[in-house]
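re: that chain from earlier
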Amino acid sequence: MKLVYFAWVRERIGKGEEELDLPESVVTAGDLIQYLSGLGEEYEAAFQFPQAIRVAVNQEHVEHDEPIAGAREIGLFPPMTGG
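^ sequence. v structure.
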């Protein structure tokens, strides 16, 4: 699955995107954040406040309890601010 990181999530992980094979236990957007936070210190830092992370599946915002099966691309980013 293609994951794309934005803003400070990208800065903390150190890359803008990557392809990952996710385990079957990763079913929802929230599961994905929890899984990613266990991949190393940089991921743990990026996702230390999981409730603040916004998720987009195929460029559409979803809640953390939304299933991600069949997604072509998942974007992970902090809340947007400004105008």
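The chain is about 25% helix and 25% strand.
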